[in-house]
Amino acid sequence: MAYFPMFVQLKNKKCLVIGGGRIALRKIEVLKDFEADVTVIAPEMIPQIRQIDKIRRIFRTFMEEDFKEAELVVAATNDQKVNSEISKICMQRKIPVNAVDQKEDCSFIFPSYVKEGEVVAAFSSGGQSPMITQYLKEKIKPNLTEELGQIAQILGSLRAFAKSCIATEQQRKEFYKELLQIGLKDIDSLEEQRINEIIQKYTKNQSEIEEQ
Ligand SMILES: C[C@@]1(CC(=O)O)c2cc3[nH]c(cc4nc(cc5[nH]c(cc(n2)[C@H]1CCC(=O)O)[C@@](C)(CC(=O)O)[C@@H]5CCC(=O)O)C(CC(=O)O)=C4CCC(=O)O)c(CCC(=O)O)c3CC(=O)O
Ligand SMILES: NC(=O)C1=CN([C@@H]2O[C@H](COP(=O)(O)OP(=O)(O)OC[C@H]3O[C@@H](n4cnc5c(N)ncnc54)[C@H](O)[C@@H]3O)[C@@H](O)[C@H]2O)C=CC1
């Protein structure tokens, strides 16, 4: 079964990671990368987890009341029974849950991803082979450049303006495409004056349409 790649807003969401080993660390780093509010619960945590900034650490085994406020949970202990129990609690409470050792206990799984600014490419093999998932990430890395992330930010900042000032969706599409092509050739040439020239070209078209 293939999983649907849903892009979820995690900023400031209360995410609970249960377990304090190497795999918990990997999951915490991903959640932090998307600005989640992370709490870790485990009797023992590896030094790298103890050193992470701005997370809550609770040194004990989990309790049912820990789930009260959780909006997303990762069961990352090394005990399958414990992870399964966590999963059941979350499923009952309809909290999205990931269990690191058994996809049957997951309502969502983690992808391998590349992120530049707000552009994210994410891969999954439906749990069949994380190696393949990692391989795909490495393949896309040379294409998902820092510049592409910057171009996305520039195009994003022009969206509201383009919607109000460029007449049709087709024209807006051409406008974004032209800016993208320029940015891909040379990000530095996508500066204010050049952008203004292109804006004028597309808004001029609109005033011509309005005059007719
Ligand atoms: C179902 C899923 C649930 C979940 O964790 O969300 C899951 C489950 C399991 N992984 C296992 C093993 C490995 N996982 C990795 C790596 C990653 N695993 C990740 C995700 C996922 N792993 C989800 C499915 C993803 C998909 O759809 O493809 C990544 C992408 C994201 C992340 O972890 O954040 C991250 C790469 C991050 C990156 O580099 O970008 C490596 C490689 C390595 O460690 O270098 C190995 C060893 C090689 C191998 O086994 O293939 C085992 C067996 C453990 C055992 O044998 O004991 C299980 C349990 C089982 O399969 O039963
Ligand atoms: N999803 C993935 O990508 C992968 C998953 N795995 C799975 O991940 C599991 C965990 O791996 P590691 O982090 O290396 O294990 P680990 O042994 O380093 O850490 C286990 C952690 O769980 C904690 N723990 C145990 N019982 C607990 C409880 N009742 N409440 C709270 N915390 C508890 C321990 O204190 C410890 O911090 C492995 O057993 C393996 O099945 C392994 C490789 C990749």
Automatic annotation (TrEMBL):
InterPro entries: Met8-like, NAD(P)-bd_dom_sf, SirC_C, Sirohaem_synthase_N. Gene3D superfamilies: NAD(P)-binding Rossmann-like Domain, SirC, precorrin-2 dehydrogenase, C-terminal helical domain-like. NCBIfam families: cysG_Nterm. It is an enzyme of class 1 (oxidoreductase). Pfam families: NAD_binding_7. It comes from Anaerostipes amylophilus. Keywords: NAD, Oxidoreductase, Porphyrin biosynthesis. It catalyses: precorrin-2 + NAD(+) = sirohydrochlorin + NADH + 2 H(+). The keyword NAD applies. Its EC number is 1.3.1.76. The keyword rRNA processing does not apply. This is precorrin-2 dehydrogenase. Pathway: Porphyrin-containing compound metabolism; siroheme biosynthesis; sirohydrochlorin from precorrin-2: step 1/1. It comes from the Bacteria.
